[in-house]
Structure formats: structure tokens, C-alpha cells
Automatic annotation (TrEMBL), chain A:
Membrane topology: Multi-pass membrane protein
Bilayer-spanning residue ranges: 56-76, 97-113, 119-138, 150-167, 179-199
Subcellular localization(s) per the UniProt record: Endoplasmic reticulum membrane
GO molecular function, one term: ER retention sequence binding
Keyword line: Endoplasmic reticulum, ER-Golgi transport, Membrane, Protein transport, Receptor, Transmembrane, Transmembrane helix, Transport
Keyword DNA-binding: no
Protein name, per record: ER lumen protein-retaining receptor
Organism: Saitoella complicata (strain BCRC 22490 / CBS 7301 / JCM 7358 / NBRC 10748 / NRRL Y-17804)
Length: 212, 10
């Protein structure tokens, strides 16, 4: 554990609390992509298969259970409690391509051609692009509530903070997880445009608006 | 999974 990884994980936790806070306080899931949220459930379920056989490190286990539980809970909230506020017409990014592409990448790049390693690799490739339906929805609506942009920022910052963590571990421990590193870099690039608008507008106190 | 590397990150 180093400071970058810890900050990354805290950013990930914060993103979920911001999302839940947004849904509760605005009593609406408007602007939140159901498709991205569903992809996150798939990401966590396929990555944390090792919960079934261990080893169960306390920190990791608690976090894994939280990420699975909270992502399923958000889906539940969107599907039932706050269903009418959901932008179903605009939230129509073709996730089949993201899932299919990630699966092909997982078949090509994995540590071993076993079910759990292919699923682990799949989860990383899928996570790297899982925000695309959310960014697509943002593009379609052209603007976003500030709290929604804080959510997306915290979620993107989590993986961006893992990059110095990997650099640190490579230098200090000689440890490199190539799949995680490549997928993490792709994920951060996917967020680049969003980060730019977030830093130039939201941080300056302006509304998140995309040029028409 | 343990043979090659253990995935100890989230």
C-alpha cells in the first residue's frame, strides 16, 4: 500500500458516495447512465471472483464487497425507486461492442488461459471503457449537474491515481501488472476530454457545458 | 491464478 493507491481507492469510494448523495438529494437519477452503472456491476462481479476462494485480505475484501454491493444498489435505485427520472431515450450507447471488445482483449491478453484469469483481464478492459455510455449521455444532453461531474471526476481520478501507484511499485518492488497498467492508461485517456472541461469549467465555478 | 501473480489491487 502506498499513498497513490490509497488516494485512488479513497477517490473510488468517494465517487460512489457522491453518486448516492446526488440520487438522494435531487431524488433523481437524471444524467446518470444506467448502462455505465450496469457495466460496473459486470466489472466488479468478474474481477472479484477471488472472493469465492480467497485469500481474503481484510482491506481488499471489504472494498470488493462494497464495490459489488454499492453498484448493485445503484442499479436497483435506478431501476425501481427513481425509475421515472432515468434518461432512457438518450442513454442508448451500444454496450454490446464494449463487452465484446473487452472479451476479445481478455482472450488475447491474460496471465493464464483459465476462467478466472480471462475474467480478471476482461474486467480491466471493460472498466477502461465502462464510462463511455455516461460520457455519451453527457454529450447528448450537453450539460450536467455539478454533483454529477464531481462523481465522474472522482471515478476517473481513481484509475489515474493508480498510474503513479504502478510506477511506484515498479521502482520499489519490481512489480508490474501489464494488463492493469495498459487498461488503466486507456481508461485515463478515455477521461481526458472530461478532465479538461472539469478543470477549465467546474473547478472555476462554472456550469459543466459542452460547446454546442 | 496464484502461480503467476496475485492480483492484490482493486
Amino acid at each position: 500500500m502506498n499513498i497513490f493507491r490509497l488516494l485512488g481507492d479513497l477517490s473510488h469510494l468517494a465517487s460512489i458516495f457522491i453518486l448516492l448523495h446526488k440520487i438522494r438529494t435531487t431524488k433523481s437519477c437524471a444524467g446518470i447512465s444506467f448502462r455505465s452503472q450496469a457495466l460496473y456491476v459486470l466489472v466488479y462481479l468478474t474481477r472479484y471472483l477471488d472472493l469465492l476462494w480467497g485469500p481474503w485480505l481484510l482491506y481488499n475484501t471489504v472494498m470488493k464487497l462494497f464495490f459489488i454491493g454499492s453498484s448493485v444498489y445503484v442499479l436497483y435505485l435506478m431501476k425501481f425507486d427513481y425509475k421515472p427520472s432515468h434518461d432512457m431515450g438518450l442513454d442508448n450507447f451500444k454496450v454490446e461492442y464494449l463487452i465484446g471488445g473487452s472479451f476479445v482483449m481478455a482472450l488475447l491478453f491474460n496471465l493464464a488461459f483459465t476462467f478466472d484469469e480471462v475474467m480478471w483481464s476482461f474486467s480491466l478492459w471493460l472498466e477502461s471503457v465502462a464510462i463511455l455510455p455516461q460520457l455519451f449521455l453527457l454529450q447528448r444532453t450537453g450539460e450536467a449537474e455539478t454533483i454529477t461531474t464531481h462523481y465522474i471526476f472522482a471515478l476517473g481520478a481513481y484509475r489515474a491515481l493508480y498510474i503513479p501507484n504502478w510506477l511506484y511499485r515498479w521502482v520499489m518492488e519490481g512489480r508490474v501488472e501489464f494488463i492493469a497498467v495498459f487498461a488503466g492508461i486507456i481508461q485515463t485517456i478515455v477521461y481526458a476530454d472530461f478532465f479538461y472541461v472539469y478543470f477549465t469549467k467546474v473547478i472555476q465555478g462554472q456550469k459543466f457545458e459542452l460547446p454546442a | 491464478s496464484a502461480a503467476l501473480e496475485t492480483h492484490d489491487e482493486l
